[in-house]
Amino acid sequence: MEPSLVTLGPHFSGTADDFPALLRRKGLLAPATVTSTSPVATPHQKSWQPTEATTILAFKFSGGVLVAGDRRATAGNTVVYDRADKVLEIDRQSIMAIAGVPATAWEMARVLEHSFQYFRRTQLQEMSVDGKVRALSKLLRDNIGFVMQGVGVVVPIFATYNSHPKPEARLYFYDAMGAQFEAADYAATGSGSPAVRGILYYENNWGGKPLQKTSEDEAISIALRALDTAAESDTSTGGVDRSGKIYPLIKIVSREGIRTLPESKIAAVFKETVA
Amino acid sequence: MIEEPYRWVEAIANRREYIEMQLASGSPIVALGYRDGILFLTFGQRRQKLFEIYDRIAMGAIGHPGDIERLRMAAIELASTEGFTRSAADVSLRRLVHYSLSPVMKGAFEQVYGAPYLARMLFAEVGDRPEEDLFLRVDYDGEIASNGATFTQARRDFAVLSGTRQSSEQMESFLQAEHSPDAGFEAALKSGLDAWSIGHMTLQTSDAKELPERTAITKYRQEQLAKAGVEAGILERDASRAIRYRSLLDKELRALIHE
């Protein structure tokens, strides 16, 4: 905390800045990247390879939104870590689940977490859900340069609970350039997501009942089955490690806030309905 | 004119007198360390006086709203950038006040051609145990008072802020006798309201040597409660969550005030 950081000069305008802008002003965050206009790729080559090697899924159920992610982190075809945490709490009500380059994604989550706190403290009110959704979108767009270079792709899911004006769970997914889409029922991202999307679509339409009507145990079971299916064909998805007893990370966003399901609970549901 | 040293001293003295006069009507703020955290308390008349600064730090202030706002923003900026680049555990109220705010306020106060900060602030940082609670009061001239022990004074588990020195001294001597750090919330709330009442009563008299009678305090507190809203916030000691500050609603508090 250097004393010189106190800038209370005539140009001081704390209220006008959002948190990323404050960090940039102080040189603590890389400037929003601007890409060169000449793409390196030839017409026959994709300009960047998707590297979001993981599986993240989220869907609404009777008790809020369930967000689940496998635990595997990979670099190329090497598994570097089997207990990665890709479902991150941003504040008491919001979760960001990430597929993509961990360095960028975790930094983004950190900026986002601080942005929401900073907004509440300076503006003396909570940031609205739309504001939060937009803040993440802006971070993704600022990151576009790295995406184009193929080194910093992040494709997140954002789940939150809106208490005003109507109490309801809200679920959003993004593309790597920052476009946001509100999901009506479910969202999935990462390399294993095609399989997961198929399962969730099937469950929602022809399963026992629509996803939004499922109980917590049923929802957990669906999430575990979906991740296990994704892991079956996608090497980058850890699924459930039966020998190492490593289970996916599942968090639930509801009116009461965020709850991380204990491993024992997940293990019990897994044993009963999946294994 | 200020090339001559005695003129500078005179200018500073005038400025001090002017600021003291401006602050003299400020309604008191009480901060009490109790078993489960720190309670901040005042009677809100017109505008918000208690603020969250960071995970474990809160602030109360009297003075010009514009100056308070600039200092509040600076404190939040400093704490937030520190917490972001390092970690929340590295954000320290002691450093924030001693190294950042105090020099800036002293500088502004002594530059006689510029405007000083018309503000008096009370900061508190909640610790894991009551002995670790830190209270710092920063004045318009950068002067810092802490709750730490000195040669003449034992460590305190409370701090107050008021428009005049007399008023804060009265509140302090009351709390010195009445308040203990292992008090529960209701007891802390009661001593806080009483201390505020004493502080506010003292602002309206020119010479108050003795503390008012207990019945007079209670009567005054009841009168104030009947016409003004209580503004309060707590920094919770509970380490299970990162963000400890929570503002309390007037309604929540009134249910706990019995007499």
Give the SSE layout.
The complex is a heterodimer of chains A (275) and B (259).
Chain A: H1 19-25, E1 56-61, E2 64-69, E3 73-75, E4 78-81, E5 87-89, E6 94-100, H2 102-123, H3 129-142, H4 144-148, E7 154-162, E8 168-174, E9 180-182, E10 186-189, H5 193-206, H6 216-233, E11 249-254, E12 257-260, H7 263-273
Antiparallel strand pairs in A: 1-2, 1-10, 2-11, 3-4, 5-6, 6-7, 7-8, 8-9, 11-12
Chain B: H1 5-23, E1 29-34, E2 37-44, E3 50-54, E4 57-63, H2 65-85, H3 93-110, E5 119-125, E6 134-138, E7 144-146, E8 158-161, H4 165-178, H5 185-203, H6 214-227, E9 229-236, E10 245-248, H7 250-254
Antiparallel strand pairs in B: 1-2, 1-8, 2-9, 3-4, 4-5, 5-6, 6-7, 9-10
Helix pairs in contact in B: 4-5, 5-6
Question: Could you walk me through the main structural features you see in this protein, from its secondary elements to its overall organization?
Answer:
The complex is a heterodimer of chains A (275) and B (259). With 275 residues, chain A is of the alpha+beta class. Chain A has a single domain (54-273), classed as Glutamine Phosphoribosylpyrophosphate, subunit 1, domain 1 (4-Layer Sandwich). Chain A is 33% helix and 23% strand. Chain A contains seven helices and twelve strands. Chain A has helices at residues 19-25, 102-123, 129-142, 144-148, 193-206, 216-233, 263-273; strands at 56-61, 64-69, 73-75, 78-81, 87-89, 94-100, 154-162, 168-174, 180-182, 186-189, 249-254, 257-260. In chain A, the strands form three sheets. Chain A has a five-stranded antiparallel beta sheet with strand order 10-1-2-11-12, covered by helices on one side. In chain A, helix 2 (102-123) crosses helix 3 (129-142), helix 5 (193-206) packs antiparallel against helix 6 and helix 6 crosses helix 7. The longest helix of chain A has 22 residues, at 102-123. Chain A is globular, with a radius of gyration of 20 Å. Chain B is of the alpha+beta class. The relative contact order of chain B is 0.18. In chain B, helix 4 (165-178) packs antiparallel against helix 5 (185-203) and helix 5 (185-203) packs across helix 6. Chain B has one domain: Aminohydrolase, N-terminal nucleophile (Ntn) domain (Glutamine Phosphoribosylpyrophosphate, subunit 1, domain 1), CATH 3.60.20. Chain B has helices at 5-23, 65-85, 93-110, 165-178, 185-203, 214-227, 250-254; strands at 29-34, 37-44, 50-54, 57-63, 119-125, 134-138, 144-146, 158-161, 229-236, 245-248. The radius of gyration of chain B is 18 Å and the shape is globular. Chain B starts with a helix and ends in a 5-residue tail after the last helix. In chain B, strand 9 and strand 10 (245-248) form a beta hairpin. Chain B has a five-stranded antiparallel beta sheet with strand order 8-1-2-9-10. A five-stranded antiparallel beta sheet of chain B has the order 3-4-5-6-7, covered by helices on one side. The mean pLDDT of chain B is 92. The longest helix of chain B has 21 residues, at 65-85. Chains A and B meet through helix 1 and helix 2 of A and strand 3, helix 2 and helix 3 of B.
